[in-house]
Each structure stands twice: as structure tokens, then as C-alpha cells.
């Protein structure tokens, strides 16, 4: 694979990359598009379904409300209450009351504009008045008694709508009326609500409600009406009536009163809408296959457009890249052969834009190479100077000679312990300065070196110098240039205590000021005012130990830590203070 790719030209590689990029992008886009279209189609179908369900809900609600109004009017009708009063009447009066009651019921039915509405009034004495002729009135009397038992328990303050009761009412015309809904309301006496004169009952046939929900009758949709217990009370397939909707269709009903969701297996989309101010819910169950068919239809069109788009893009890229890579290939061949005369001549055939850009890029490249060569030369020169400085930073022979001579004298005086201590500290000093080759060491190591140096000076000259080192634990591991504190300490000894008979003290301490680590070298010698000229001139002076002057220290600090870093010398309260400021990048 790798060998095959290496044989391809730039033009072929670009075409290959573009083709792969387009293919991968289209694959990702197709997946995203399919999901988006599925969501859009599902939402559109849901919006259509919920609109229809809302219309069906309004129709069912209207039917229920009309019957509620009817039964309320019947239960409060003064003539009905008068005829239901339990008073002695003759047979003629009883027959007249029956006719009057039937006439009142028929008037209500006609006013409802629904001649199929069936109404019955059962008195407390089990007299039955209805707008149809019945062969058996026992069913209605039993229904009245059951309702009164239910009502007396305080279960309903207004009308009661039964959804589980199924009555087979045989009419005189030998027609059987199977109702699924029975609405009942008590008829009270005008004198007391505790005196019930009878019960008004309205019967609603299931088919009348199904007409309102049968808005879609096809293989993809199933619409049912359920009650508050999720029992199916109306459906096209009458065998479903009475069953739990979740059991009949194998899904878990959403508790929301409105919306759509999928079943567990993702095979159905369920849309539901609660009937206004009732305990009924209309549910539409649609197969996902129907949605997928709509999505597939849209995706086929999308894929055709994608294929045409790919073909157009590849053709455009082919001719565009060919016009770019052909001049580049020719120019590359000329640059490899370094035939610059031919290069200048053929530039006229490449086009002005390409020539200008390539010439400018080539000239910039040449200039950058020249600058890089100069920079490397400067770096090599600086490296050479640094190596020379490093050699100069070693211990000077004069210091070493004086120290060895002091050791010799100590041995002659049989002070072997002192001599041994001098040899050990000189060895440690040599190890730090000559053997350890790092340009930067930790501040802790630098202070150890200073300690050895001061101990050697004290033993050599017999001078009593009390030196104190107070360093913050946070500063111990800070990297510093090797031997940068030694010139400051030697400056304190040479200029501070050379002609003074005082208790000499040198303090070295660290403090943090903003983003700076400040290292202070303090001595209580004769002071800076008396010897300021000597100290200033000593900036150029190379000290006895290492040949490193104060200017060298100042320059090294700025080189390593930036221009903000450096050396400060001043006098305060009888102390000469040399401060090293090191900028810390946090």
C-alpha cells in the first residue's frame, strides 16, 4: 500500500484524497440526514395525527357535553319532578302522566337533534318512562338501584358515566341495542336533596363514539378510545373492547395527556390525546414501517442528488488541479536540475500568478537559508566564547598555591586536624568548580560551595568571620549560574574587612519580591561610601579565586534570566548589601 501510494503523483494523490473525503463526508452526512428526515417525517405525521385527534376529542367532548346538558335538564325539569311525586292518582291520571312524561322525553330528544339518543327515567316506585318500548324493564330498574347505591356512597356529586357496564336492551322491534356508556343523574325533590324522586339515564351507543375516532382506517393505523383505567372502550375491532390497551398492543402507555412515543421494540409510534375535561384518551397506534417508507422515499431522492453532486465535484476538481499541478511539476523538475536559465524562460508559460508566488517563495527560501547560516555562525562564535569563559571560570593558580602553602604550614606546625579539614574543603571546592560541568546548579549547591570557600579563607588568614546562611526551602532548588555568589562574598571580605578590627559578619539570605527571587549578601564592614570608587572599579576586576568579576556576574544574570535580572549594591544601617535579582517565570 505504501509503495503504491509513493508511486502516485501529487495530482493523483490530491484526487484520491478529495474522493475519499467526499465519500466519507457523504456517508456521515447520509446518516445524519436520515436521522434528521426521520425526525421531521415523524414530527409531521405526529402533528397531523394530533390535529385529527384533537378534532376527534372535540367531537367526543361535544357528544358527552350535549348528553350532560340533556341529563341535567331532565333532572331539574319542574314538570318531571311534579309527575314523579308520590301522590294518590287515578288510573286515568296515571295514564295521562305516562303520556306526558314520554312527550317530555321526546321533546328533549328532538331538541338535541339526535333521534338515536335513548333516554329513560325510572321513578322511586320503579315506574319506567322511555323513548322506546322495552320487552323487559328489569334491566333498567336494576341499573337504577345500582346507581343509587353508588351515589349514596358519595362517589359522585354530579352525573355518573359508566364505561364498563354493558346492557343488552331488547326493543319491541326485536332489535338489540348494545350500549357501552350509561350516564345517570338523580332527580331530587324541590323540597329536599335527600328526597330522590327517581333517576334520569341517558344511553350512548359505542358506535356513536367510534364514528368520532375512526378518522384513519388503514393497515398502518389503529385508533382506540380508552378510559382512565387504560381499558379499551371503543375500537374498530370489537374484540379489543374491554382489554387493557398495553396488553392488547404490547407497549407501556405514557402518563402524559398529549404527545407521541415509541414502544419498547421500536415497531410502533403511539400518539395520544386526552378528551377535554373527561377521563377518556384517544390513542393512535401507527407502524414504524410506515414512517420508514416515507423516509426511504426521501432518502432515495437525496442519494440521487448526492451522486450527481459527487460527479460534478470530481470533474471540477480534476480540471482545476490539473491546471495547478502541471506548472508546479514542470517548475519542480527545473529546480531539481538547477537549470535556472530555462526556469526564467519557461516562467512566461506558467501564468503570472503562479510565477510571482513561486519566485517570491523561492527568494524567501534563499534569504531564510542565508540568515540561518549567519545565525549558526553567530551561535558557534558565542559557543566558543562561552567555552573560553568556562575555562576562565576555573580556580586561578594563585588561589590554589596560597591554599596549598597554608596547608603545608599547618602540617609543619603539627596541626594535622586543621590541615585535614583544609584538604577536605579544598577537595570539595575543586569538585564543585572543576569536576561538576553543569553551567547551572541549584542554589543549595552554590551556597555549599560558598561555605567551603569561606572556611578556607578563615583557616588561611586566621580571620574570624561569622557567616550566616538563611535560605527559604522554596529557593533551594532554583537553578543559578555556578560561582555567581563567590565574587560578592570575596568583595565583602576584601573591601569590608581588610582594615577593620571588628567582629566580621556575612549574612546570606533569600526573599521573594513579586516575580523575583532576591539573594542578599550582607556584611558589616567599613561601608560602601568609603570604598564606592574601589567597588565600581572592581566591576572590571577579576577576583583572586575564579577570575570572575562583578560585571561578569551581572552579565551572566541578564543572559540567563532576562534583562530584568541583575546585580544591585548599596549601603543601609551600617551594612553593605549586594543583591542578586533573579526573575522567576511562573
Describe the structure.
This is Histidine kinase internal region. The chain crosses the membrane at residues 304-321. It is found in: Cell membrane. The protein is of the alpha+beta class. The chain has three domains: 36-296, PAS domain (Beta-Lactamase), CATH 3.30.450.20; 351-390; 393-583, Heat Shock Protein 90, CATH 3.30.565. 54% of the residues lie in helices and 19% in strands. The chain has helices spanning 2-6, 10-76, 78-83, 91-111, 138-152, 206-213, 245-249, 288-337, 340-346, 352-392, 397-412, 416-435, 443-461, 486-496, 528-538, 550-561, and strands at residues 118-123, 128-130, 160-162, 167-170, 176-188, 196-205, 221-226, 232-235, 258-262, 268-274, 281-287, 440-442, 465-470, 479-481, 504-513, 516-523, 566-572, 575-583. Strands 1, 2, 3, 4, 5 and 6 form a six-stranded antiparallel beta sheet that branches. A five-stranded antiparallel beta sheet has the order 8-7-11-10-9. Strand 15 (504-513) and strand 16 form a beta hairpin. Helix 11 packs antiparallel against helix 12. The longest helix has 67 residues, at 10-76. The radius of gyration is 55 Å and the shape is elongated. It starts with a helix and ends with a strand.
Amino acid at each position: 500500500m505504501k509503495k503504491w501510494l509513493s508511486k502516485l503523483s501529487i495530482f493523483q494523490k490530491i484526487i484520491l484524497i478529495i474522493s475519499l473525503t467526499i465519500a466519507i463526508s457523504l456517508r456521515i452526512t447520509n446518516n445524519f440526514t436520515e436521522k434528521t428526515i426521520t425526525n421531521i417525517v415523524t414530527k409531521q405525521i405526529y402533528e397531523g395525527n394530533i390535529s385529527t385527534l384533537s378534532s376527534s376529542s372535540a367531537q367526543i367532548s361535544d357528544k358527552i357535553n350535549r348528553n350532560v346538558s340533556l341529563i341535567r335538564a331532565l333532572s331539574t325539569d319542574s314538570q318531571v319532578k311534579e309527575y314523579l311525586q308520590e301522590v294518590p292518582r287515578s288510573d286515568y291520571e296515571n295514564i295521562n302522566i305516562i303520556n306526558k312524561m314520554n312527550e317530555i322525553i321526546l321533546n328533549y330528544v328532538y331538541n338535541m337533534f339526535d333521534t338515536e339518543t335513548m333516554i329513560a327515567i325510572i321513578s322511586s316506585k320503579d315506574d319506567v318512562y322511555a323513548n322506546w318500548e322495552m320487552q323487559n324493564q328489569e334491566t333498567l330498574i336494576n341499573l337504577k338501584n345500582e346507581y343509587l347505591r353508588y351515589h349514596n356512597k358519595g362517589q359522585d356529586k354530579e352525573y355518573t358515566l359508566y364505561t364498563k357496564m354493558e346492557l343488552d336492551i331488547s326493543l319491541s322491534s326485536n332489535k338489540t341495542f348494545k350500549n357501552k356508556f350509561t350516564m345517570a343523574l338523580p332527580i331530587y325533590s324541590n323540597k329536599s336533596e335527600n328526597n330522590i324522586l327517581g333517576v334520569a339515564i341517558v344511553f350512548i351507543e359505542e358506535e356513536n363514539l367510534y364514528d368520532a375516532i375512526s378518522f384513519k382506517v388503514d393497515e398502518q393505523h389503529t385508533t382506540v378510545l380508552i378510559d382512565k383505567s387504560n381499558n379499551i372502550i371503543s375500537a374498530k375491532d370489537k374484540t379489543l373492547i374491554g382489554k387493557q390497551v398495553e396488553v392488547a398492543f404490547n407497549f407501556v402507555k405514557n402518563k402524559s395527556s398529549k404527545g407521541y412515543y415509541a414502544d419498547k421494540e421500536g415497531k410502533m409510534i403511539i400518539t395520544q390525546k386526552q378528551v377535554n375535561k373527561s377521563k377518556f384518551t384517544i390513542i393512535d397506534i401507527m407502524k414504524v414501517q410506515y414512517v420508514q417508507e416515507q423516509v426511504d422515499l426521501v432518502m432515495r431522492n437525496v442519494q440521487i442528488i448526492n451522486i450527481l453532486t459527487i460527479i460534478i465535484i470530481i470533474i471540477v476538481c480534476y480540471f482545476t488541479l490539473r491546471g495547478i499541478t502541471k506548472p508546479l511539476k514542470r517548475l519542480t523538475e527545473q529546480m531539481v536540475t538547477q537549470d535556472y536559465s530555462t526556469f526564467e524562460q519557461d516562467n512566461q508559460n506558467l501564468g503570472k500568478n503562479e510565477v510571482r508566488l513561486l519566485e517570491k517563495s523561492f527568494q524567501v527560501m534563499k534569504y531564510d537559508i542565508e540568515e540561518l547560516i549567519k545565525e549558526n555562525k553567530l551561535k558557534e562564535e558565542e559557543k566558543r566564547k562561552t567555552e573560553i569563559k568556562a575555562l576562565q571560570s576555573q580556580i586561578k593558580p594563585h588561589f590554589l598555591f596560597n591554599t596549598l602553602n597554608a596547608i603545608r604550614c599547618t602540617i609543619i606546625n603539627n596541626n594535622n586536624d586543621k590541615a585535614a579539614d583544609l584538604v577536605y574543603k579544598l577537595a570539595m571546592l575543586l569538585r564543585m568548580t572543576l569536576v561538576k560541568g553543569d553551567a547551572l546548579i541549584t542554589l543549595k549547591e552554590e551556597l555549599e560551595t560558598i561555605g567551603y570557600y569561606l572556611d578556607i579563607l578563615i583557616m588561611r588568614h586566621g580571620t574570624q568571620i561569622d557567616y550566616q546562611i538563611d535560605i527559604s526551602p522554596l529557593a533551594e532548588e532554583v537553578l543559578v549560574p555556578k560561582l555567581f555568589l563567590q565574587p560578592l562574598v570575596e568583595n565583602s571580605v576584601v573591601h569590608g574587612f581588610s582594615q577593620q578590627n571588628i567582629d566580621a559578619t556575612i549574612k546570606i539570605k533569600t526573599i521573594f519580591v513579586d516575580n523575583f527571587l532576591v539573594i542578599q549578601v550582607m556584611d558589616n564592614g567599613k561601608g560602601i561610601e568609603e570604598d564606592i570608587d574601589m567597588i565600581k572599579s572592581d566591576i572590571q576586576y577579576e577576583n583572586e579565586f575564579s577570575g570572575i568579576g562583578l560585571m561578569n556576574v551581572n552579565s551572566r544574570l541578564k543572559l540567563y534570566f532576562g534583562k530584568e535580572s541583575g546585580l544591585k549594591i548599596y549601603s543601609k544601617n551600617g551594612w553593605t548589601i549586594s543583591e542578586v535579582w533573579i526573575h522567576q517565570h511562573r
